[in-house]
Structure formats: structure tokens, C-alpha cells
Amino acid sequence: MYKKLMLASLAITLNTNAMNSLESANNTLLNAPAHIKNIMNSAPATYNYTSKFSRSSSVSYTGQAFRQVLINDIKSYMTSLKRGGHDSVDTLTALNSYFAYNENTDAYIDEIINGDSIFKVKAKGLDGQALYIYEGDFYSDIQSPGKNLSSKIAGNDNPLRRKELKGWSSFKVGNIDLRKVNADNKGDSFAEPEDLVQAFFQTISNNAENGQAFSVKNGDLEIQRVSGAYITEDGLDLAQLVQKTFHGAVSYSQAAGDYLATTTSVTGGLNSGNTTPDKPGKAYTSMEHHFDEAFGYFGAARDYNSYTDVQIASKLSIDTNNDGEISVLSELNQGLSTNFSRMDLIAKNYGFEMDLSGNTMTAFIQGRQLITKAPADYKKYVVALANKALGNWEKTLAAVTIHYINSTISQMDAYGTKAYLFTNHAKFWSEMKGFALSFQFSPVSIMSDAQFDELHTLLADKPALHKNGLDTVVKYKSDLTKARELLNSIYAFPTTSSNW
């Protein structure tokens, strides 16, 4: 168990008034004085800024880009694992070599990664053709010594909003008891995000050693065989759950609860200094660097607004400097950033215009411009732009949760036909649940605690499968419909979201 940072003296102020944080931010920016608006409007088209102390770039978020690579790659590794034939200890060690990455880890088996391991992230140009990664092929090429996920997951680096993980009501994941994963837990105290992740790791490791391919009925049609160690007989896709948990408990949590925060630290986040170098010799101030780090967790290429939504959603890259390669640090759309445009496109296809991708990127660009220029009384508007970015980030999480509610219902409806696939049922449900856990990781969340609890009561901890009985399936479909309606009401989405 990794050491928890004690932040008991810092109080998190929770906004429980629905839409208040985003609406307040938009109103603040609308009523900003002319000199603030002029500087915002003079922001560059791309996320590029020159240092106040030299002629070099002041933008730096290498560690965040590195973590995006780890989040991508651990999912790829998990989906490669089959049931049986592996050593569970080795598999668990390999999984933790991503989670607690160390470039000097002893890679005594091929699955364990260190600085000399080849990363799995790929890049495609606008024509769909593969392009080389500019930084190289190995993890240490991106950053040395590199960063890890374990030290930055919510509960380890910043305090959980409600002191414990919410949204997973059962103490068990498969045969793993969450109370026994965390040695710090006493009695029936609940887990932290790391404990849930470790339970997922242990489950897939056990399946990789002792699991056997299992059969799933599809009505009167051919029985389906499932051999992936990351798929459970209860219908959990552990690879999706782990990746989406990291998107929320690492990326979103770090941006919202740390780097863009004003209530979790008197000197950190946007309360940090903006007149002197962050450290001797650095080209950026502390506030500039924190804003950059939040942008790194967003995951967008620096010229994100130059892309079409189709290009972003298709995970294509623009070779901005025409060197024939794509830089992980500036030209690759990673993490959740592709889902912003994806949901913009899906909503537009059903008559609802929203610009989650553009609103978020513009807020980051304008906020960084204000920090760089530092006009009179600028901080109030930087905070507003940060909350605008976070509000649109949260709305993206809500929109994509609805998308996977719909996908899960479609699989339930398809049971007994050729369109039904158990692995897709597990995948869609797990993406839905994993994304929905994210709402608890922001101190300025639009969703209230009561709404979060209601949502997860409806989503439950596993899908309703037809083997559990038709009545169970019918009831769960009704609950998913209510969950979608709840999200619509919180985020002002249209009833046509049932088609997303």
C-alpha cells in the first residue's frame, strides 16, 4: 500500500448548486473588463507561450504526457492476457510496473516494463498512415526517470472529496475483498481508488493463472466462448474499468483537485506564484507550470483547435512542424481529449449542438494567456477559465457515460440475436461505470453528492445478464433509463441523448 499524504488541514469546498460552477464562470467571463477580454482575445491559436525570463518556451507538461502513455499501455497489456497459462505473481508484478512505473525495475519477464521497454502508443497522420513517434521507441525516450500513476491517484496525492471512494457499493470485486486489499483499512471502512484498482489487478492476475475459457449463452444461438483474462463471468471488462478509473482518479482528479484548484492548498494550484521562476533556471512560473500540467492531463495536442471533430475522434494527428513524425508531447491527442470531439459529433448527429472540445481548449489557451501576461486583477478570470474548462470536461464525462448507457441497453436488447456479443456487453457496461466514477474527483463538481449516489445506485456494480433472469434485465434497463434522465437533468442535455 502506498503512503497516503495527510492533508487533513485542508478543506475542500464543494459546490452543490447544480451548474453553478460553470454558469458562474461563464458569467464572470462575460462581465470581464475590457483589458481582460482584450488579452484573452489576443491568445495564440495554439498552446504555445514564451518565457517571461528568456526567449525559450515556458510550456512544460512532460510528466502528464508520460502518464497518458502509461494509461494507454496498461489497457493494451490487460487486453492481451488470456485465461490460464500465466503466473499470477508475475502478472500482478507486470501490472504494477505500469501503475508504479520505475525505469530501473528489474524486467525479469517480458511483460514487466521499465525505461528500456518499448511503449505501445502509436500515431497516425491525417491520411490514416502510421507515423513514427518523434521522441523515440522506449519509455525513457519520452522522459527519464519518468513518472508513475500510483503517486498521483486520488487519495494518495490529493484528498478524496468524501474521504473514501464512492460509487462501488460492494466490498467485493470477483473474489477479491476490498477491505483486505488495503492494509490501512479497519473494520468495514471502504476502499480508496488504489484499492479498487488493486482488486482489479488481482482478479485479472488470478484469471490469467487459474482461469479457464468460459461459455456464455445467447438465447438459442451458438454459445459464445470467452478466453480473455480481463473479462469476468459477471460481465466486467477489467481493462476498461482500470483505464477509465485512471482517466478520472488520476487525470481529472489532478487537474480539478490539484493544478486548477484554489481551495485545496493556500500555495498550490492557482494560488501559486507567478512572478519568479518555479525553480532556479526554469523558464516558467509555478502558476504557469500548474496550468500546463492540467492541460497535459486534458491530453490535447497543442493545436487541438486546428483539427476537425472528425479528425480528433478518429485519433489522427497533424504533423505541425512537418518533420514526418508525431511528438507525444505536442502533436498527439491522448487520454480523454478524443472523447470531447466524439461526443460533440454524436450529439450533433441527433440535432444537439455543443462544443465541449472547443470550449475546453479555448479556456485553456485563454487562461494560460492571462497567466503569461498577468494584467491587473487577472487571477479571478484565470480561475473562471479553469472552471470553464473543468465544467466542459465534466459534461464530456456525463455525455460519454450516457453513450455507454445506450450501448449497454442496446446489447441487452440484442440478446438472442447475432448482434449480441457478451464481450461487448461487458465492455460497454464497464466503460459506462468507469467514466461515471469520475464525478467524485472534482471539488467544483456540477453533480452533487446526492446525485452521484443516486446515479451509482441505478448503475450498480455489475451488469444485469440474462442468466440472472428476465425480470432482473427488465428492471435494470429501467434503472439505466432513469440514470440517463438524471444526467440529462443535471447537465441540460436533450431527450435525444437516448440516441447518443
List keywords for this structure.
500 residues, mainly alpha, two-stranded antiparallel ribbon, disordered N terminus, globular, single chain, 3-stranded mixed β-sheet, 5% strand
Q: Overview of this structure, please?
A:
The protein has 500 residues and is mostly helical. The chain has one domain. 46% of the residues lie in helices and 5% in strands. It has helices at 20-30, 34-41, 62-79, 88-99, 139-142, 178-181, 193-210, 238-259, 286-298, 309-313, 337-349, 356-373, 379-414, 422-436, 449-459, 470-491, and strands spanning 123-124, 130-133, 172-173, 176-177, 214-218, 221-226, 325-326. Strands 1-2-7 form a 3-stranded mixed beta sheet, with no helix packed on it. Strands 3-4 form a two-stranded antiparallel sheet. Strands 5-6 form a two-stranded antiparallel ribbon. Strand 3 and strand 4 (176-177) form a beta hairpin. Residues 1-19 have low confidence and may be disordered.
